[in-house]
Amino acid sequence: MSANNGGDAGPANSGRVNDVITRLREGDAGLILLVLGGIYLAYIISGVILGYQLRGQLNSIAALTFYIGVFALLALALNLHWGYTGLFNIGVVGFMAVGVYVMALVSKPVYTPGGAAQVGGLGLPLWVGVLAGMLAAALFGFIVALPALRLRADYLAIVTIAMSEIVRFSFLSSEFQQFTLFGNQVGFGGGSGLILDYTQPLEAFFRTFGLWDAYLGFVTAFGSFGPLNLNNPKPIVDSLIYGGVLLLFIGAYYWLLKRTGESPFGRVLKAIREDEDVANALGKNTNRFKIKSFMLGCALMGLAGILWLAVQGAVTPNFFRPRITFFVWIALIIGGAGSNTGSVLGGAIFAGVLYQGPLYLKNVLEAVLPQTNAPNGFGPAVAPIFQSLDPLPFVWYTLDSIRQLQLVIMGLVLIWLMHNRPEGLLGHRKEIAASIDLSRPTRQSSTAAADGGFVNGVSETNDSSANSGGQRDE
Amino acid sequence: MSESEETTGVDDASQSVDGGRTETRGETDGVDERDETGAEPTTTDAQSPSTLDTDATGSETGEYPLRVENLRKTFGGIVAVDDASFEVERGTLTGLIGPNGAGKSTTFNLITGMHTPDEGRVLFNGEDITGLPPHRVADKGLVRTFQIARELSEMTVLENMMLAPKHQRGEALWRSVTPGVRDDVVRQEEELLERAWEMLDFFEIDHLAEEYAGNLSGGQRKLLEMARALLTDPDMLLLDEPFAGVNPSLEHRLLEHVHELREQGYTFLLVEHDMDLIMQNCEHVIVMHQGKVLTEGTPSDIKQNEQVVEAYLGGNV
Amino acid sequence: MGIAETYSRSRQFVDRRPLTHSLAAAAGVGLVLYLLWVLVSQLVTGQLQIHELGELMWDGLMRGLVIGLAGVGLSMTYSILNFANFSHGDYISAGAFSGWATTYLIAGLGRADIGSLLLVGAGGSVFGGALGIGISTTPLAVVLGVVVAGIGAVALSLFVDRTVFKPLRGEDGITLLIASIGVAFALRYLMQFVFGSDVRGTTSQPPAYSFYVVDGWVRVNYHDMTLFVVAIGLMVGVHLLLQRSKLGKAMRAMSDNGDLARITGIPTEGVVRWTWIIGGALTGISGYIFVLWKGTLAFDDGWLLLLLIFAAVILGGIGSVYGAIAGGIVIGLTASMAVIWIPSAFARAAAFAVMILILLVRPQGIFAGRATA
Questions:
Q1: pLDDT tens digit string along B122-144?
Q2: Could you list the residue ranges that cross the membrane (chain C) (predicted)?
Q3: Confidence of residue B25 (pLDDT cuts 50, 70, 90)
Q4: Distances (CA, A) of A315 to A311, A365, C5, C112, C281
């Protein structure tokens, strides 16, 4: 709303320019561009230090974009649950798993004896699988929500994380490894996982519109384009395009959730978050709103899971450990629960700095520092410090253990945020829950809302006395 | 049982009256003619309270929209409300008083569905609403405010207000997101927004419209809460100690608003433990003591009732 | 008055809650009867032998005592500080590591280098079996290990409370819960960083007694008995402590109403400290005896136990010591005995399901109303 007021003064034209500038400076768009630009720049610079060729740079950009994409999507979905509705869901990964596995079940080719895959699927087109996966995640959300939503926030948390573990156990179990559905030999593959041997998503997408050959032509042209000169450009182009697809999905999620939030529906969700009894006392059937919000968020989590894993070639149940749920939470809290823009920002920062960052840092340091073998344990790493005051083995061990240490760092960041900035970067931004601008409709403003009018003057005096004398004393 | 059959017919009638009212509410024409500003010297604009409801005024005097019969509620062996029965007459400001622990708030919660009574029933406009969930009770036009004002603190005053109107089109998720259909939602929101502003003007908190509700003073929150409750188009308002923690000048203003609204036809049930306030403002007073209705009558009756005096002196107020 | 109206009216007359409750009760009774029927028919057909049943129950009891003992600490902090502490599982692991480092050090002094011993044989440098660790073979090492495990977990909980939770006192439970997730992450992976990610064997095979039960032998080894004695002893001790001392009274007052307790002059920070001390000690010791009993140790042992502990605490009613113990035993028995009815992959799921069921039917827990002790 503040951005809207930016262009009040001055002639219309310069006002508009001012407006755009204010928007960029004060609004979130500028911040997002700044942060994204910073992250990409850091990656490119570290790529230069590492001596990456163009191929390596493109690869690292594609990987970065991929993780920014999936974490932003997941944070957006979680923001609907927690930021908007106040539902403390720490079973995010369970809904992702349901989405992915149902998608695989529907879209994997039918079982052929002697084929590469141990189990088959229903062999339906990929988009059918994606829709089925989202639907299944939403239905699973309904099953969890129906009884659990009347629980206290901390109980809901425990129920959702337990449900997500039950999902993982189920996909791990040999009982669902293989079964028959509609006369097809299908299954979830148990602990050894599932090979995702359907037509790859990009190919399926372009083939649907008859553009596959055109795409292949583009890939070849891209690869042989003078300065690039890549041989076998397809994997790189594929992953870059897929990163772009994820960014488009962020746009779509954002659009959908913004409309959801900025509406009477979103207003009720917000009211439920603030005080459910009040919403109830005003005649809102809060349970229905909570279930709808929960199911929509779950479907979006399912889709985000699908987008994450559909291109990985295989999926195993142990991918879906609770830690991924906590990753998404960290992303949301960094950005600021309650803000869609913040969710995207948080997803980007988490992916760029906390998730991918330490690995890149390690690569950069290893490229800069002399090559040695890291000790294989904490003991051999620490011993030289005591024996010969040689800290280097410990440094090597630390670098080598960056995968564990980055989780330590994430934990510390979470604690720091709770202490210093629990609302995140953008948590308390005004994202007004209404489909329209709520300032006084103009045709009345001339009579009643004019500043300094008698009405306002009187009421203000009254209220200042109320402010001074009417302090709550309960 | 005979009563319930009697009231069924009335129920239908009042429903249709109610429905008609709700329809005229959206269109601002017709109502503007009426000038209510006499009672409120500060709001000389024609628009301020004009769209507030008036049609129900006096047309059904003698009717009792709220009827409570033999309510009983125990919490783990402690009887909070014990066989309480009373009625509230339409268009009145009825007070419910009693010393602390008399069961007033529990009675409120039983009426509005926050608690389910162990025994007894609650009739609203002739319809049995016993044990209905709070949102259904509110939906029927019986809306409450809370003892400690429960503003939605991280929402602005306007968001608080816009939340209240019932059955908004945009409360359906699909309507709010589907392109095209959303225009409908926007149109309705524009209508509701005007009403919200009018209500803010009426309660003279329009200058706080874009403030977060959590930043309001205690008294302002009470005003907001009442304004918000009125936007649900209630038949009857249950006010739970609306003057607690409010300074005298604001209390005066709130009372003026309540009287004005009552003259327009709203029915009020007011829980309060300040005897004087009740005696000066209510037409009818119900006294509760130890979970039971001790007595009821006009303020002057109550003043002369020795039992009441005893209850208050013997009690801990 | 139409039929529909009569119907809706009569429906409103019936209070719905008792109806759903009796339905739930009926369903519960039906489920129990079905489970019993399956059990009996398996026993009759010889698919399951009685001594096998006995072994499952004994296993479940052992597991349950560990869960219950660790649950007492969680339950106490949950009720007094009003938040679900997700780092509790990692206190268990931390206690276990500190205790087992001590045990290794004492049992293996002179037989391996100190570094390897202190790191509990990280990377396969020393093996507990090779050191012959056990209650009968190295009793001093085990007893000191138990003590240090308790002290280590107490020190850790006090440190974390001072640095993480104390600055957040007065915030809502969710803020603290999220912070505790951060603590859990930091602790767990710090332990992985220091102690490595390998699952190590910690004990040599302990001697065992065998009891003949109807149709076969049930084995009970020395470590089973150690676990039993330590767990029961500590539970009784905590009970007496909380029942007899002023501290117990203050704790009950605080869990009932923290603000009121503060106003009436109870030194709340002192009570909080004692809560962490008692809870931490029980937690650390439970971690130690858990490892002694199962004979292996890994950095995420405690985390894997955490949800079961939550299940036990919720089952028993938050804040109730008896509840945590009883809940622990129920959850332990469920997790161990579920294999009679369902595939073993779902044994943990069954324990979670019991918890979810309790939350839905009786969210205040089975033993609610009996606050701490």
A1: 999 888 999 899 999 999 999 99
A2: 20-40, 61-80, 117-135, 141-161, 173-191, 225-242, 271-291, 303-331, 338-361
A3: very low
A4: 10, 32, 55, 43, 41
CA nearest to A423 within chain C: C175
E strands within A36-188? Answer: 179-181, 184-186
Within a domain: B269: yes
**With contact defined as beta carbons under 8 Å apart, do C72 and C238 qualify?**
yes
CA C256 to chain centre: 23
If pLDDT is split at 50, 70 and 90, which confidence band does C95 have? very high
Question: Could you tell me which residues come within 8 angstroms of residue B206 by beta carbon, excluding any fewer than 6 positions away?
Answer: A440, A448, A449, A456, A459, B197, B200
d(CA B140, CA B236): 10
pTM flag (> 0.95): no
Whether C119 sits inside 8 A of A378 (CB atoms) is: yes
Residue B31: inside a domain: no
Report residue C196 as tokens: 């490595």
Amino acid code (one letter) for A195: I
Number of domains comprising chain B: 1
- CA distances B208 to A295, A417, B165, Å, are 36, 32, 20
**CA–CA separation, A144 vs A174, rounded Å?**
24
Cβ contact A7:A15 at 8 Å: yes
**Cβ neighbours of A448 in B, within 8 Å:** 45, 47-48, 197, 201, 206
| Per-residue model confidence as pLDDT tens digits over B137-192 | 999 999 998 877 788 888 999 999 999 999 999 999 999 999 989 999 999 999 99
Q: How far is C370 from chain B (nearest CA, A)?
A: 14
Residue A100 · residue A280 · CB < 8 Å? no
Rounded to a whole number of angstroms, the distance from the CA of C4 to the nearest CA of chain B is 13
> Is the Cβ–Cβ distance between A101 and A177 less than 8 Å?
no
B278, pLDDT greater than 90: no
* Chain C residue whose CA is closest to B130: C12
CATH number, domain with residue B243: 3.40.50.300
Confirm whether B58 is domain-assigned: yes
Q: Which of A62-66, B54-58, B219-223, C23-27 has the highest mean pLDDT?
A: A62-66
The gap from C-alpha C353 to its chain's centroid, in whole angstroms, comes to 17
Cβ C370 vs Cβ C318: under 8 Å: no
Q: What is the CB-side half-sphere exposure of residue A357 using CA atoms within 13 A?
A: 19
Residue with tokens 């225009």: B183
Domain membership of residue B30 (yes or no) is no
Sequential DSSP letters for A333-371: HHH-TT-HHHHHHHHHHIIIIIISHHHHHHHHHHHHSPP
Q: Is C15's pLDDT higher than 80?
A: no
pLDDT of residue A117: 67
Rounded average pLDDT over B58-66? 62
Interface TM-score (ipTM) > 0.95? no
Domain that holds residue B295: 2-24+36-314
Lowest mean pLDDT among A48-62, A173-187, B48-62, C70-84: B48-62
Give the pLDDT score at B150.
Answer: 83
Cβ-defined contact of A411 to C122 (cutoff 8 Å):
no
For chain C, the domains span 63-361
According to the 3-state scheme, what is the secondary structure of C264-319?
A: CCCCHHHHHHHHHHHHHHHHHHHHHHHHHHHCEECCCHHHHHHHHHHHHHHHHCCC
Alpha helices in A262-401 (DSSP H): 264-274, 276-281, 286-309, 322-335, 340-349, 357-368, 378-388, 392-400
Which residues in chain B are contacts of A266 at CB distance < 8 A? Answer: 176
